[in-house]
């Protein structure tokens, strides 16, 4: 009888995530994943089937953690507009200290695959759509509270913010000056008012 696989699944996913985040899917070898996770190739395949399945699971984990942070930022804020401001300021701060130029795992993966891998593309799209919904809901709350003018729809404003967020994440991969992010954040906040 085969011995059951014993390891901390979340830890292994985090270690694999770090590999994919550093090098991308294509440049990350199974040997890299074995070294990072301390699992033997057979155990890695037995637990995750193949490299793409492991990659998809790391994307899912990254997305869930990111969504949780966004939701927390919004629910902990004093009001809807403060939640949006705090979220963007935190994002700008995180990008400005990204010394390794990691950017965002999901945005990086979207750029790496474009539309060549429908399964990866679909998973990332689901996450990005969820972020846009969270932004739209938060903007609508700010509009309902009179914190934002009723001029444009919450959906239009959320789309603008999402484009800015993607842009900041791509910028962080090329590491511009830290003050660039404060400028982008300020302009995005100004644009949704």
How would you characterize this protein structure?
By secondary structure, the chain is mainly α. It has a domain of 134 residues: Tetracycline Repressor, domain 2, CATH 1.10.357.10. The chain is 75% helix and 0% strand. The protein has 9 helices and no strands. Helix 1 packs across helix 4. The model has no long low-confidence stretch (mean pLDDT 91).
Brief digest:
By secondary structure, this protein is an all-alpha fold. It has nine helices and no strands.
Q: List the uncertain runs.
A: none
CATH class of one domain: Mainly Alpha
**Named CATH topology of one domain:** Tetracycline Repressor, domain 2
Q: Tell me what the CATH architecture of one domain is.
A: Orthogonal Bundle
Helix count equals 9
Radius of gyration: 19 Å
Shape: elongated
On the 0 to 100 scale, the average pLDDT is: 91
Order of helices and strands: HHHHHHHHH
Indicate the percent of residues in helices.
over 70%
Structural class: mainly alpha
Separation of the first and last Cα atoms: 65 Å
How large is the share of residues in beta strands?
under 5%
Biggest beta sheet attributes: none
CATH superfamily of one domain: Tetracycline Repressor, domain 2
Secondary structure tally: strands: 0
Helices and strands, with pairings:
Layout (H helix, E strand, L loop, with lengths): L8 H15 L6 H8 L3 H8 L2 H26 L3 H17 L8 H9 L4 H27 L9 H21 L4 H14 L1
Which descriptors would you attach to this protein?
193 residues; mainly alpha; Tetracycline Repressor, domain 2; 9 helices; 75% helix
């Amino acid at each position: 009888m085969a011995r059951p696989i014993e390891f901390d699944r979340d830890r292994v996913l985090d270690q694999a995530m770090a590999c994919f985040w550093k090098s991308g899917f294509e440049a990350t070898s199974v040997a890299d994943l074995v070294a990072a996770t301390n699992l033997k190739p057979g155990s890695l395949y037995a637990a995750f089937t193949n490299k793409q399945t492991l990659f998809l699971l790391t994307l899912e984990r990254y997305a869930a953690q990111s969504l949780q942070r966004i939701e927390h930022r919004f629910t902990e804020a004093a009001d809807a507009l403060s939640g949006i401001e705090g979220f963007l300021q935190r994002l700008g701060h995180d990008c400005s200290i990204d010394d390794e130029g990691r950017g965002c795992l999901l945005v990086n993966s979207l750029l790496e695959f474009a539309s060549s891998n429908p399964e990866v593309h679909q998973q990332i799209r689901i996450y990005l759509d969820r972020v846009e919904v969270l932004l739209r809901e938060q903007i609508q709350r700010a509009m309902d509270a009179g914190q934002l003018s009723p001029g444009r729809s919450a959906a239009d404003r959320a789309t603008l913010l999402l484009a800015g967020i993607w842009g900041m994440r791509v910028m962080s991969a090329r590491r511009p000056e830290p003050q660039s992010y404060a400028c982008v954040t300020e302009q995005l906040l100004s644009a949704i008012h």
